[in-house]
Amino acid sequence: MKAVRYKSVLGLAIGERSLLAAEVSAGSRPVVRLVAEMEYPPGVTPLDVEAFGAALGAFRRDKGFTARSVVVGLPAKWLVVKPKEVPQTDAATLADLLRLGAEAEFSSELKELVYDFVVSDDGGAGDSVLLVATQRKYVEAVTAACEAAKLSAVAVTSSALVLGEATAKASGPNGMVLAVSAGGAELTVRRNGAASVIRHLRGPDQPAAFVSAVRRVVSTLPSSGGDRELVLWDQTGMDAKLLGEQLGVAVRAGDLPALGVGVSMAGVNGQSSRFGPAVALAASVMGTGAPAVDFLHSRMAPPRTRRLPRWAKIAIGAGALVLLIGIYGFVDLQHEQGQLDAAKAHLAAMQGQLDSAKAFVDKVSFAKGWHAEDPRNLMCLRDLTIALLNDEQTYVTSVALRQNVRAPNGATVVGGVKLPDPGTLAGQLNGKTPEQGGWSGLLDRLRHMPSFTDVKLGGTSNGEKNGEVSFSITFTYIGKAAQH
Q1: What is the dihedral of CA 187, 191, 195, 199, to 10 degrees?
Q2: Which of 173, 157, 243, 234 is nearest to 207 (CA)?
Q3: What is the CA radius of gyration of the chain?
Q4: 227: CB partners within 8 A, 6+ apart
Q5: Which of 220, 163, 154, 225 has its CA nearest to residue 188?
Q6: What tens digit of pLDDT does each residue of 91-118 get?
Q7: Does residue 423 contact residue 365 with C-beta atoms inside 8 Å?
Q8: pTM for the complete prediction?
Q9: Are strands 69-74 and 152-158 parallel, antiparallel or unpaired?
């Protein structure tokens, strides 16, 4: 994080059920101007960006906070903490080593996590560091909620880690810090000026189980001299002396002046232990300070892209040329499309005239079959009349004729079936006869006439009332001109 001098900063310590807020003003010694606690509305969590942001904005206005720059502290429950053994090297090289290690160890989760690390005060000359990560969605959610509340997040870090750092300034480089709230507890352990343990513990709603959980963690820690002191920052009214007796270590309550800040509000000292995490967060960026871990400005973020080499510039130039050619082609295509659309519009405007002309041509083509120069239709009716003997029993009810035309592709055979010759007539004769088989004579006569081909019985049916038999005959009329 780049060092910036702020006139006032708001620290927000995110908890499971509520958040703590503290506004600290700059000066020769930072001063706590205002503190308050915001309980989450029913059903709302810090991950509900819109609802949480609206509630945070209303809380800020109601309590009178004026600072717009915010340091957000995430709960230890949202962190992934892992100690790593590293060679002695400088901080820049250490960041590269840890980045490569994280890529190899967490390749599938790397895009979903944001990493940073804690080094000792000598700049990374020790043999181990603490790798700290959180899910990217947490960082994005709290920063978006701050924006919705008209606030600007300047850092997103760990509340427990920052409180441990601030407490160590007064208590020494080694020790333990325990922050307790109704929703849970966070334990931080420092060795040689750097955090070595960050642990989330259950809340104190069941005192015996809580003390047992803290005792198990404390008992596993190595001891070196007088570093077995625990500083308690409590929001629940816990007795520090009694807790020390139960744990077998020295326990003292933390207070705000021990964090290196002054207090300008009457009565706030009675709540010193309660608002320690939020005050530590706000004070962490005062002057030239910065949190040891900042997920918004991670030292493990991929390095910025270097200046492009010559071959890359040539490739970009070639790509730009291809793009220009593509744009020219697109513009030309648009021009051609415009001309096509205009032609289609003109054709659509003439559609009425085209329909009228087509209807006229159809009528003329139909009438042509009745013309004296080529009276095929009349000839067909004449030949049908000759074939139909006047027996006063069999009669025709309808005759349908249509001209066979050439296939559009010029084909003469389709699907193995020969098509009728163009110019011939396809016909169907429908009639009635008093008895079944009365139509057979007409069928035989048509088949023996040379002007008819492909004569077939289409079908028959018996009448229900008078017993007459309906029949149909299909044929192709070639006429005398087509017989040769």
Answers
A1: -30
A2: 243
A3: 48
A4: 172, 174, 175, 191
A5: 163
A6: 667 777 777 766 666 555 556 888 888 8
A7: no
A8: 0.59
A9: parallel
pLDDT tens for 176-190 read: 888 888 888 888 888
Q: Cβ of 317: how many Cβ atoms within 10 Å? A: 10
Dihedral pair phi/psi, residue 175, rounded to 5°: 150, -175
**Token pair 């040329």: residue:** 321
Question: Which amino acid, residue 450?
Answer: P
Q: Determine the 3-state secondary structure of 186 from DSSP.
A: strand
**Amino acid in position 191:** R
Task: Round to whole Å and give the CA distance between 399 and 401.
Answer: 7
Q: How far does the chain reach from its first CA to its final CA, in angstroms?
A: 104
| Residue among 408, 425, 407 nearest 369 (CA) | 425
The dotted CATH code for 368-483 is 3.30.70.2830
Instruction: Report the topology of domain 8-283.
Output: Nucleotidyltransferase; domain 5 (3.30.420)
Query: What does each C-alpha distance from 429 to 35, 143, 383, 438, 472 come to in angstroms?
Result: 105, 88, 12, 15, 6
Which residue from 371, 354, 366 is spatially nearest to 425, judged by alpha carbons?
366
Domain residue limits, the chain: 8-283, 368-483
Token representation of residue 120: 């000792």
Structural contact between residues 310 and 213, judged by C-beta atoms closer than 8 angstroms: no
Length reported for the chain: 484
Residue where the block lists tokens 């990493």: 115
Which run of H or of E encompasses 459? Answer: strand 452-462
Average model confidence (pLDDT) across the chain: 82
